[in-house]
Give the backbone structure.
Amino acid sequence: MVLKITINYNSDIITFSGSGTFQAKDEIKAIGGRWNGANKTWEIRPAKLSIEFLKEKFADSEVEEIGENKLEMQKKISSDIFDDIQKNPTNQNFPPHQSVSEFLLSINNIIQNNFLAPIYICGIINKITQSQYGHFIDIADTENSSESVSCSVWESQGLENVFSDLIKLGITPEADLPVLIKVKVGFNTKKAQISLNIIGVVADYTSGKLQAQRDITNQQLILEGIFEKQKELVLPKLPRTIGLITSSAGTVVNDFIAGLESAEFAFNILWFDSSMQGNAAIADIKCGLQSFNKNPDIDLVVLIRGGGSVADLAIFNSYEIAREICLSSKPVISAIGHEKDMSSAQDVSFISCGVPKMVGDYLARLIIDIKQTFDENILNISRNSTSILDIASRDIANFKNTIPEYIKAKIEKYNVGFVRLAQYLPTLASHIIKLSELNIINYEERFKELDPKKQLKRGFLLARMGDKYITNAKKITAGDEVELEFYDARKKVVVK
């Protein structure tokens, strides 16, 4: 299997072809190779790798050079200049040297010959500054933000033109945006600085990076075991107080309110005014969620934002916002962008709706269902009450019809008793009279036996002092005069 390498200095390209390319494709990719589907070859632009390096890297390959190697020529020129300075110094007492102009020219030639064609640089936009000359864009390294390069987009180019592929996707060039830019490398001899002029951007790289962040965030939350935490919560049966997180700058809140109106219910809405794009939004949304979770009156939290570019909505894929939603003790209902837009914030929410109005519709539907259930229960109660009253009315009517017969039977029963009682009354009265006469005679005999005189004849006496009878010896003392009454006489005595 043969791997053929062609270094074309005229076209500034290195191509890899032949049957051996498939076996060596990973090594080719590792040194910057890209697949050209049209030509069915692997290519490296610009042709800055030396023939020595390629022969060592791919020992069994066939290497061919086309045109003149300008890099080697520049090295030879620089070497010749240095040799001339050493051979013809202006002053034998000074070491060999170059003038500033000569040095800058040498650097410029080296850069120009090493970067004959534009190159691609990936990073994150750190800052965009506008001036009278155009725009200056700082691109930071994706892994180390302290390392950055300054690039330019001149006014004649136009920022919108250079980033047109991104703008067509709805992505605006702004801070924190991951980009893969195409730059032309130059050297500013007046400032002794490398100049990087942006001439294009790979839009698919940026959109892919933004979408990949959602997967990264979700995977991290799954590993932490909190990705499904919101789904375990229970929505209150009658949600009255809603914590709303959105921006007052937009009109999206009007869509949300419009959805609620169909319920004809007095929702209590507490609004947390939050930024909804950029890094400031992350801190604001987290603060809003934390604030509502501390409020015991809040039944649920609504997080809504209208449509926007991929970059505008990128913050809703942030780990910080998604994690805060997962840890919320209140159910969070979210709607971010349009129905086609999805984010980590929506993935972890209790419920995710397509657009903000659908959130209002959902909550209104809950209230409408409750009202319908209530109305149905009232109707059932009414129907059951009517049925009970109908049964009671029938029972009363039946009872009413039986009353005359019942009373008649009772009267007849009592009438028989009265007749019998009337027949028995004379006999009963005569018997009672006889018993009464006997009782009277008996009482007369008892009264005779209780006559005091009869008791005195039996040997009893009565003692009195003055007009009072003495019944207790404690009532008299020595010297008292007491009158004793016998059956046949009264005697006074003095107590000793």
Summary: The longest strand covers residues 119-131. The first helix runs from residue 21 to 30. The chain has 14 helices and 19 strands.
